[in-house]
Each structure stands twice: as C-alpha cells, then as structure tokens.
Write a structure and sequence with these properties.
- The complex is a heterodimer.
- Chain A is mostly beta strands.
- Chain A contains no helices and eleven strands.
- In chain A, strands 2, 4, 5, 9, 10 and 11 form a six-stranded mixed beta sheet that branches.
- In chain A, β9 and β10 form a beta hairpin.
- Chain B is mainly β.
- Helices cover about 0% and strands about 50% of the residues of chain B.
- In chain B, the strands form two sheets. In chain B, strands 2, 4, 5, 6, 9, 10 and 11 form a seven-stranded mixed beta sheet that branches.
- The model of chain B has no long low-confidence stretch (mean pLDDT about 95).
- The chains are: A mainly beta, B mainly beta.
- Chains A and B meet through β4, β5, β9 and β10 of A and β4 and β5 of B.
Chain lengths: ~110, ~110
C-alpha cells in the first residue's frame, strides 16, 4: 500500500539555526499537507500544496512540493524555541480523497 | 466556538470490555476521521467518513468499528479491546478533505490492560 516516509525522525538545533524535514511518498500524491503538533497537543494544520513544483511560505517556514508530486519538504529559517514540536506531512493518493496517510513525523528540539 | 469534542480524554480498561470513544463536531462538516498515534509511527488512519452513512477503512481498521448515523457524531467502537490498542486516539473533521484537517479533537489516551 501507499507509504509516506519522513526524515529525519529527530532533529536538535541551536536557536537561530535552520531546519529541514523531508517527506517521500511511494506513490504520486494528489496533494501534500503539513501539520505541527506541540508536546501534549493535537496536530494543527499548517498548509496544503497541490501543484507540481509548488512553493509556499509562511513567515520563516517554506514548503515545497516536488515536480513529480512524490516528495515534499518543510524548511524553517532561523529556528526559535516556539518552533519546538513534531512536524508531520500527510497526503492522499491519487484518486482517493478520503484515505489520508501521514508520515512518521520529525520531532524538532531547539536549544536556546 | 467551532470545535471537535472527544470523550473521554483518558481511559483505562481491561481486555475484552467493549468501549466507545465519542467524537462530535459542531461545524456541519461532512468529512470525519479517526487516527491512532503511536511513538515512531506517526498518525495512522483507522476509519473515515465522507458523509452520513458513508464510512471507509483507513490503514489500520482491524479491531475497530465506526458509525455515522448523523453528521455531527462519529463514534469509535472497540468491541473487544486488546493491549495492542493502547494508544492515543484523535478524531478530526473538515468541510472537505482536500482542504486539510483543520479541526482535531483533544485526543483520547486509551490504556488496555
């Protein structure tokens, strides 16, 4: 079945350093979604990318969707302690808009 | 306030004792879904529902049942819980799945002993 892999699983950075997490799907995705989960909280929807090669920015966060629509990345510039949490990508396979597959998540720790 | 409400937040139960985790949303969303979260595995979809009386299996439906008799409610039923169903469960809803899961419940931490 469809799999969505995310790397790295953990990342520790010094405050001010950049951070990137990568997401790869075994099949073409109709779209890719990104979520953030703070410790002890529930996932919070950040953004959705739909088009091949799409790039979107939210302040210090940059999201990219690959040309083949099988991979994606989230890059955070100049991390802050408020960025701490687990970042998940998730995608629907082509032709199925109900079955959402999440990656395993990347847990980001930021040292002040 | 727009929200998804899950109950209970915490539950410890014994193997084989049927239980139901409730999920209710007040936004008239058509799409609802259930996930379990386990360390290192991310969120795995159990069941989803595109509308009333329409439910489909996600990636890990074994041992679970759901129903969608009315739009606002989407209960998760464990007929005979086992220890491997110990997990953190989330319910989510959205007006349309291609808009992202904008609303998650607070989660239910279930322990089966």
């Amino acid at each position: 079945g469809q799999q969505v892999m995310q790397i790295p699983q953990y990342q520790h950075v010094q405050e001010g350093e950049d951070f990137t997490t990568y997401c790869n799907s075994s099949t073409t995705l109709s779209n890719i979604q990104w979520y953030k989960q703070r410790p002890g909280g529930h996932p919070v929807f950040l953004i959705q990318l739909v088009k091949s090669g799409e790039v979107k920015k939210q302040k210090r966060l940059t999201f990219q969707f690959g040309e083949a629509k099988k991979n994606s990345s989230l890059h955070i510039t100049a991390t802050q302690t408020t960025d701490v949490g687990t970042y998940f990508c998730a995608g629907y396979g082509s032709g199925n808009t109900g079955k959402l597959i999440f990656g395993q998540g990347t847990t980001l720790q930021v040292k002040p | 306030e727009a929200q998804v409400t899950q109950n209970p937040r915490y539950l410890i139960t014994v193997t084989g004792k049927k239980l139901t985790v409730t999920c209710s949303q007040n936004m008239n969303h058509e799409y609802m879904s259930w996930y379990r979260q386990d360390p290192g595995l991310g969120l795995r979809q159990i069941y989803y529902s595109m509308n009333v009386e329409v439910t489909d299996k996600g990636d890990v439906p074994e041992g679970y049942k759901v129903s969608r008799k009315e739009k606002r409610n989407f209960p998760l039923i464990l007929e005979s819980p086992s220890p491997n169903q110990t997990s953190l469960y989330f319910c989510a809803s959205t007006a349309s799945p291609d808009r992202g899961l904008a609303f998650f419940g607070q989660g239910t931490r279930l322990t089966v002993v």
